[in-house]
Amino acid sequence: VNxxxxxxxxxxxxxxxxxxxxTTNDVSPTSGQATMNSGETIKSFTISALRDxxxxxxxxxTVSIDSLLQGTARLDSSASSANFTVLENDDAHxxxxxxASRYEVxxxxxxxxxxxxxxxxxxxxxxxxxxxxxxxxxxVAGTNYVAASGTLTFAEGESEKNVxxxxxxxxANYVPERNFxxxxxxxxxxxxxxxxxxxxxxxxxxxxxxxxVSPLSTIQVIDEPQVTNR
Length: 230
Description:
The chain has about 230 residues and is mainly beta. The protein has strands spanning about 1-5, 15-20, 25-30, 30-35, 40-45, 50, 60-70, 80-85, 95-100, 100-105, 115-120, 130-135, 150-155, 160-165, 180-190, 190-195, 200-205. A five-stranded mixed beta sheet has the order 10-17-15-12-13, with no helix packed on it. A four-stranded antiparallel beta sheet has the order 4-2-7-8, with no helix packed on it. Strands 14-11-9-16 form a four-stranded mixed beta sheet, with no helix packed on it.
């Protein structure tokens, strides 16, 4: 922040300044003095934004010259304050992610579907949305699952939404695991994608499978021989 002295520069003056509001811990310092020696016409001081992990929206602050000490300089009230903004930070509108890298579901699941949760972490400000879509891998849409795509919308303060995907039963006694992908697309409204934006959904099949357990071997316990003193 620059403090300017115009018209004359005789004698030393000190400008007393402050930042308002000073009820937050977002900037430092929030007050101070800027002294110009005789002949000096400009003096600078620095106000720094403090780093924290709290998601916040834009915050407006005002720095003002409150008074002058020493000398006979006059304060220009029309130019004695200036505004500055600490921009929104720490993903104030949220990071959108899937909760796991892999999900498993049986094709005979009673509900006929798998429910996958998308979480909104960090900030919960504003309404945001994200697109999602499934894509084939070894599982085929229409055969092993029902293709799904759409948009999830989170209201302000909302932290979770679900994607429901239909699972199709082929009826075979046993087939190898088949899988498809669920991916998050563009985020809208200021949110960003988290690290887990694509997950694998494994569809497992086992109709009338039999699990065989080998019988335990018979264990014979033999008493230790008794020692007879002679």
